[in-house]
Backbone:
């Protein structure tokens, strides 16, 4: 074993076979998928690093809890278990189960965002941005400006507090529907946010009477970084840190498919009874009764266990260690990655790796396609394909801040030897990187184009004289 390999704090009880198609088959599959990795069949993938969302391997305790689900339509025992766990960790009185993160976003934004109002975020994830736009809102990102992608500084996920103040004074608090802190900051390399930053943002919001919420998909991973890297927190438990963090906000939306350690689920937790009543009203119309929110009772039981398991320091230490391990192996192949490695993924700077491919030709997508062609590995572009394009409401053109490729690591699923294989695939791609060419879009939908668009390789211009 290599010295920096983190050891899993669990053993494997149940396995699922995976298969590597040959190169010829892989070439045919990616072409049939119109070079969009979302259109590949999962069965045709050897190692799937598309997302850490909903891909967790559940524990024996979770599988046991699943059998205890109470499937009553209203007032199920499973909801009461879930409610209690969420109330404790999120320190909020009212708990709304949702079937996943984006339904929590839709419920919240439909309730609080008036058309034309701003929603401020350290950085919106794609569905948060999509839901803001869908409700007529204007998403504004306020990431920490001092951040250089490749510099290994702590807490690069922070919000820029000066820019927040400036935005409020320029536009007025009444133009802002809410402020959201995404922990960890997925779109900026899965980087954590410090407690100091959370406190400052909370203070600014409350001074101006602004609603302050968390997008808490990866809250426990964020708490691990606070414990490890922020002065004054080394002696605190992850649970204590989580409680302090959530105490600064009015509420949280969460996709529980990440740090809920479950394959489906989400939630809203908040203290304002009026807001709770409004959200609940809408919820019964579109999601389900307020004690199940589109989930089965068994899902709620699984989440009640998962939300506790994720607070285990040994688990988080291994998890963050495994991300750092993959990052270090990829760096050895001479590839620029976002530093330091964050909580759930390694992010390759494809713009820097493939400088000969302009952003209009999607260097990140080029690399993502190459991962599949070379090794049957699925990864995702987080760059111009995901964040570029035109706002369907205003016609305004968006520009992606970076051309990244994300290697998201499912929780408790792949072992270190899978990650060694990935590092070998990367090295083989890099050896012929100058020969790679970009892609263009041949068909695209109105919102969230990267999920369903079709692409084709850009034809090489022949340099005949
Ligand atoms: N917020 C963040 C920060 C997310 O990363 C996601 C999902 C969501 C909200 C939406 O949650 O999928 O349950 O509806 N991120 C996944 C990912 C899809 O791959 O990063 P959802």
Residues:
């Amino acid at each position: 074993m290599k010295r920096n390999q983190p050891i899993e704090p669990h053993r494997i009880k149940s396995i699922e076979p995976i298969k590597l198609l040959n190169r010829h088959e892989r070439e045919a599959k990616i072409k049939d998928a119109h070079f969009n990795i979302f259109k590949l069949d999962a069965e045709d993938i050897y190692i799937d690093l598309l997302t850490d969302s909903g891909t967790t391997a559940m524990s024996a305790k979770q599988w046991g809890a699943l059998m205890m689900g109470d499937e009553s339509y209203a007032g199920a025992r499973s909801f009461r278990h879930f409610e209690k766990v969420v109330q404790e960790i999120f320190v909020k009185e009212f708990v709304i189960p949702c079937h996943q993160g984006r339904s929590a976003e839709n419920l919240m934004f439909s309730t609080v965002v008036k058309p034309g109002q701003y929603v401020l975020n350290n950085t919106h994830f794609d569905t948060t941005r999509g839901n803001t736009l869908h409700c007529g809102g204007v998403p504004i990102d306020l990431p920490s400006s001092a951040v250089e992608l490749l510099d290994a500084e702590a807490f690069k996920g922070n919000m820029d507090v000066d820019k927040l103040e400036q935005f409020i004074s320029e536009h007025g608090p009444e133009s802002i529907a809410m402020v959201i802190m995404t922990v960890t900051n997925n779109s900026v390399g899965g980087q954590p946010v410090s407690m100091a930053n959370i406190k400052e943002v909370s203070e600014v919001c409350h001074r101006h009477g602004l609603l302050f919420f968390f997008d808490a998909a990866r809250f426990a991973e964020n708490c691990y970084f606070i414990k490890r890297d922020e002065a004054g927190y080394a002696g605190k438990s992850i649970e204590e840190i989580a409680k302090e963090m959530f105490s600064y906000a009015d509420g949280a939306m969460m996709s529980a498919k990440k740090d809920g350690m479950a394959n489906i689920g989400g939630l809203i937790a908040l203290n304002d009874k009026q807001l709770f009543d409004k959200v609940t009203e809408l919820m019964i119309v579109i999601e389900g009764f307020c004690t199940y929110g589109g989930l089965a009772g068994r899902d709620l039981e699984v989440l009640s266990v998962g939300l506790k398991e994720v607070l285990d320091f040994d688990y988080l230490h291994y998890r963050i260690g495994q991300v750092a391990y993959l990052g270090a192996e990829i760096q050895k192949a001479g590839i620029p990655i976002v530093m330091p490695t964050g909580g759930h993924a390694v992010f390759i700077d494809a713009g820097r790796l493939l400088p000969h491919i302009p952003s209009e030709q999607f260097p990140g997508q080029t690399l993502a396609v190459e991962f599949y062609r070379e090794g049957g590995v699925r990864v995702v572009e987080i760059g111009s394909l995901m964040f570029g394009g035109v706002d369907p409401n205003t016609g305004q053109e968006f520009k992606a801040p970076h051309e990244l490729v994300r290697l998201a690591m499912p929780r408790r699923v792949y072992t270190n030897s899978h990650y060694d294989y990935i590092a070998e695939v990367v090295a083989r791609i890099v050896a012929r990187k100058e020969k790679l060419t970009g892609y263009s879009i041949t068909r695209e939908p109105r919102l969230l184009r990267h999920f369903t668009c079709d692409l084709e390789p850009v034809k090489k211009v022949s340099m005949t004289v």
